[in-house]
């Protein structure tokens, strides 16, 4: 029978969940407990996954580990030329992700070595950078949120992970609603459908109100028609449409930055966001309109000609971002021609992000052109 509203989609007993408790109770537990400084919860899970994958059929988790993806399409797997094809505002976050991973790997080498008594093979051959990248993405893309009491044996980083076999086969749909969490009474991780699911249709859950940048960064995919998605205007692009002769430009940019108006400037399906238009209004002001700066940030429009300047500038930004998308899509289709399978999958994810952004920009342009014509 298909789940109706409030019916359980899946209910998993606690003993099926793989958490840091599982790891601490395992053969690896004493090594983690002895290690100083304490190991981060995420690393404990990663090391256990790597070790269990290595144990093969001897591992009681092998039916689960065998069906995990062998590789992922999160930016931590991307080479520099693929990172360069991401929208500018995402490139920085993707690079940060790679650096964060690299730091974790380098700072964990001594701990990996301490696990040597558990293996006959040198730990350098087991706990490689590739193995950690795989485990790190397995944890980041597949765990469900579950708070655990702080363990005295683990570092203070949040321990909110649970690998949930079978439950983690469910894909994300931005338009569905579910209630999910660990039920302390039944001691089961439960997912309930809010709207119900149609018979013979794929059952989806909702990973959270994430835009496509976040989905790509954290899960390695893009949801088409994602209502949360927007196109970000990065500072470099914003500066392109500004008047360099404006003597107050530096001061205006500082004022915007101090008032937190230089980030989260976006275009959506319904045109430029309020934050973007507010930033443009401030940037549009003439020297004699200095006294209006504060009011503009509170939402005031100053004059008809300044409003026209803002719409014109928003159109320039929209066109610039569209050109950037077109170039990236052309380059992506060239790179796809001689890419191997894993690279091809990465290129396809970036391509779908660019296509989604193109769709949003087309809608934005129509909205702006209508405003311009008014
Ligand atoms: C928790 S797993 C879901 C199960 C996964 N599809 C599988 O077969 O193992 C999360 C991963 O599934 C994929 N995924 C989830 N929802 C998706 C969607 N709407 N479109 C494309 N891929 C999706 C992404 O690769 C994501 O990292």
Automatic annotation (TrEMBL):
Keyword Zinc belongs to the record = no
Domain named Rubisco LSMT substrate-binding: which ranges? 244-361
Q: What is the organism field in this record?
A: Labeo rohita
Key words, A-Z: Methyltransferase, S-adenosyl-L-methionine, Transferase
Q: Which GO terms describe its molecular function?
A: protein-lysine N-methyltransferase activity
Q: What is this protein called?
A: SET domain-containing 4-like protein
Name the domain of life this protein comes from.
Eukaryota
* Annotated GO biological process: methylation
């Amino acid at each position: 029978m298909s789940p109706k509203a409030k019916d359980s989609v899946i209910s998993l007993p606690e003993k099926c969940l793989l958490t840091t408790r599982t790891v601490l109770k395992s053969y690896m537990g004493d090594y983690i407990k002895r290690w100083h400084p304490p190991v981060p919860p995420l690393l404990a899970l990663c090391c256990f996954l790597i070790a269990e994958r290595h144990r093969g059929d001897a591992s009681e988790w092998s039916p689960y580990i065998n069906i995990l993806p062998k590789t992922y399409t999160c930016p931590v797997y991307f080479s520099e030329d693929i990172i360069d094809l991401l929208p500018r505002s995402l490139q920085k976050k993707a690079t940060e992700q790679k650096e964060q991973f690299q730091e974790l790997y380098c700072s964990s080498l001594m701990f990996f070595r301490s696990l040597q008594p558990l293996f006959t093979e040198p730990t350098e051959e087991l706990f490689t950078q590739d193995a950690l990248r795989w485990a790190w993405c397995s944890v980041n893309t597949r765990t469900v949120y579950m708070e655990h009491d702080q363990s005295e044996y683990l570092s203070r980083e949040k321990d909110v992970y649970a690998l949930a076999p079978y439950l983690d086969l469910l894909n994300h749909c931005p338009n569905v609603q579910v209630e999910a969490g660990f039920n302390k009474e039944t001691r089961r991780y439960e997912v309930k459908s809010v709207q119900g699911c149609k018979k013979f249709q794929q059952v989806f859950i909702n990973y959270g109100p994430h835009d496509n940048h976040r989905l790509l960064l954290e899960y390695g995919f893009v949801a088409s028609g994602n209502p949360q998605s927007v196109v970000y205007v990065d500072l470099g692009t914003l500066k392109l449409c500004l008047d360099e002769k404006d003597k107050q430009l530096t001061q205006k940019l500082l004022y915007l930055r101090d008032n937190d108006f230089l980030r989260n400037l976006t275009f959506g399906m319904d045109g430029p966001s309020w934050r973007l238009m507010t930033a443009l209004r401030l940037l549009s002001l003439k020297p004699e309109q200095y006294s209006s700066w504060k009011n503009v940030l509170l939402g005031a429009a100053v004059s008809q000609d300044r409003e026209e300047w803002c719409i014109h500038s928003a159109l320039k930004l929209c066109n610039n971002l569209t050109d950037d998308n077109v170039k990236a899509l052309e380059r992506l289709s060239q790179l796809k021609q001689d890419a191997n399978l894993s690279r091809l999958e990465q290129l396809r994810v970036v391509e779908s992000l660019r296509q989604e952004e193109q769709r949003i920009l087309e809608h934005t342009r129509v909205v702006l052109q209508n405003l311009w014509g008014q």
